[in-house]
């Protein structure tokens, strides 16, 4: 069996698309445009593409398991839990925020593991790179791995 790669969509004005997440329940692909400060939803079966914009760059979007229209979004210096219906041009509400509160620091990319823990990379400009994972029911448990290579495609 060979792998076939095909172009599935033209996304207008997409600058830097990354952080893809396929949601099995909705059969949609979610991803972000870091420079365009937006989160995108693409449904391959229909070809439908929608996006919502933010005030800050986002490097990941992951649906919260079992909770409709609720997403974890990584935005430069914070992680937010936000609501988006997948159609509106803006987030409807930001429920919770975890601020890393460090100067010259930026969150980069991430994924959830099978236990539901969020793992994300952090840039410390001019300093050692550390990977951080937020987990627990309230996103209040911090897991840290020091001296890792730059987090790309966790």
Automatic annotation (TrEMBL):
Zinc keyword on record: yes
GO biological process: L-ascorbic acid biosynthetic process
A single GO molecular function term of this UniProt record: calcium ion binding
Binding site for a divalent metal cation: 18
Keywords: Metal-binding, Zinc
Family: Belongs to the SMP-30/CGR1 family.
Cofactor note: Binds 1 divalent metal cation per subunit.
Protein name, UniProt field: Uncharacterized protein
Organism per entry: Dendroctonus ponderosae (Mountain pine beetle)
A Pfam family hit: SGL
Ligand binding (substrate): 108
Cofactor(s) in the UniProt record: Zn(2+)
């Amino acid at each position: 069996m060979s792998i076939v790669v095909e172009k599935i969509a033209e996304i207008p004005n997409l600058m830097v698309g990354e952080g893809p997440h396929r949601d099995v329940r909705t059969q949609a692909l979610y991803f972000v445009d870091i420079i365009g400060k937006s989160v995108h939803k693409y449904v391959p079966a229909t070809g439908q593409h929608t996006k919502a914009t933010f005030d800050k760059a986002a490097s990941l979007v992951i649906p919260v398991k079992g909770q409709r229209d609720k997403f974890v979004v990584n935005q430069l210096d914070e992680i937010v839990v936000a609501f988006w219906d997948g159609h509106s041009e803006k987030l409807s509400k930001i429920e919770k925020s975890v601020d890393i509160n460090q100067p010259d620091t930026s969150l980069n990319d991430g994924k959830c593991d099978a236990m539901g823990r969020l793992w994300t990379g952090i840039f410390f400009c001019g300093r050692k790179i550390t990977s951080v994972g937020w987990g627990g029911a309230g996103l209040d448990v911090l897991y840290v791995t020091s001296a890792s290579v730059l987090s790309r495609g966790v």
